Amino acid sequence: MGAEGGLRERKKLQTRAALAEAALRLALEKGPEHVTVEEIAEAADVSVRTFFNYFPHKEHAILGRNPEHLVRALERIRTAPPYESPLTTLWLVVRDVLRDLESDGELSRRGELIMGSPTLFHQLMLTSIDDERQLTAALTERMGEPAGAVRPALIVSTAGTACRVVMELHKTAPDRPVTELLDEAFHLLAQGIDTAFGADNQKGTS
Amino acid sequence: MGAEGGLRERKKLQTRAALAEAALRLALEKGPEHVTVEEIAEAADVSVRTFFNYFPHKEHAILGRNPEHLVRALERIRTAPPYESPLTTLWLVVRDVLRDLESDGELSRRGELIMGSPTLFHQLMLTSIDDERQLTAALTERMGEPAGAVRPALIVSTAGTACRVVMELHKTAPDRPVTELLDEAFHLLAQGIDTAFGADNQKGTS
DNA sequence: TAATTGTTTGCAGTGAGTGCAAGTTTCTGC
DNA sequence: GCAGAAACTTGCACTCACTGCAAACAATTA
């Protein structure tokens, strides 16, 4: 990931990382509710005012989202091969992000924290909405649908929802691996989530 | 609804209603962002401190949700007829709430306001999450699934998502009626939202 | 090295939200 | 009807999130 650019560029990245890291560490230590911006700023050795130059809220810093992911996702959607169905594209995008987070060790550290804190989970949803707007726009265009079409919007939103559901389920039942839960969720979405009461779980799945 | 109880009880309801009403009116007049709790309290003729005895945030007062709706929805899920598929149940629940809001004239007053304001929309989502948890629990039991099952959680969440998407699409393209958008969304969910790029919109629909 | 541009910071201020202790109102038993 | 208990309201002092502004500072460019 582009570490080009001059000193200035690198310093900004460094500061941002330091703030995010401090925010996460403190949140894990004391619980997200009991961390103040002042502490985070102090730990990262910058002023409180500078904190707000980097993040709009405390929660945003703790979430520490990587903007790179959205960029890559949008690119992936725009350049999806013609034979690939939209939901499959999103599936691949999600798995990509997941793999990235796991390799960082971020998933275990942040995942638990976020799902355990209402405030953080809420904040995650809020930022997800903005992402989803952009993803929807990209997918709508990729599918050649008109601007107000229901399907692309629904595909993106439900894919996002699936991720959240998976995270939540993983919290309550950590025995099943996340990837497996995710695969099941996307299969259900693809085939239609509905079923008659009492019907078998997976009818006609590979 | 239950005007029993003594003077004290009635006065509390009155104060609560006055605060909610003032909050909504002021939000409509000046935009939700530009209303302060102080103004709301003043308009309802109580102190700021008292406002916070009734509502945890400003947004909560403006949203003024009717807790009755969730109760009815839960009941509806628990007593769903055996031949009714889960998604259908949720569909009916949603239409029920929608009809109720429309008859109150609440949908037009609050709906526009909420969808037009990021803050309010976000707040709505936050409260929706809590609702969805309860709905999921009810549906999981109704379907006879184990606690961590993916499908019921996904059904509830995606149904909620569908509502959101519909509200959002309705905002950007108000020509199509909400009920029509909603029906399309639920149909897509039932049949599987995915489709190959460039395929027809609805394959095999009635 | 000098001018330009971008970043950091302190300061002053608004507004949300909380805990506490003192006042006021409603309720209860007599 | 009245004294005391219980519930509600209020003002006050406080913490914290967050913003705008202008000055100081660091990096870039010519």
TrEMBL record, chains A, B:
<dbReference type="InterPro" id="IPR041347">
    <property type="entry name" value="MftR_C"/>
</dbReference>
<dbReference type="Pfam" id="PF00440">
    <property type="entry name" value="TetR_N"/>
</dbReference>
<dbReference type="InterPro" id="IPR050109">
    <property type="entry name" value="HTH-type_TetR-like_transc_reg"/>
</dbReference>
<dbReference type="Pfam" id="PF17754">
    <property type="entry name" value="TetR_C_14"/>
</dbReference>
<feature type="domain" description="HTH tetR-type">
    <location>
        <begin position="13"/>
        <end position="73"/>
    </location>
</feature>
<keyword id="KW-0238">DNA-binding</keyword>
<keyword id="KW-0804">Transcription</keyword>
<dbReference type="InterPro" id="IPR001647">
    <property type="entry name" value="HTH_TetR"/>
</dbReference>
<dbReference type="InterPro" id="IPR009057">
    <property type="entry name" value="Homeodomain-like_sf"/>
</dbReference>
<keyword id="KW-0805">Transcription regulation</keyword>
<feature type="DNA-binding region" description="H-T-H motif">
    <location>
        <begin position="36"/>
        <end position="55"/>
    </location>
</feature>
<protein>
    <submittedName>
        <fullName>TetR/AcrR family transcriptional regulator</fullName>
    </submittedName>
</protein>
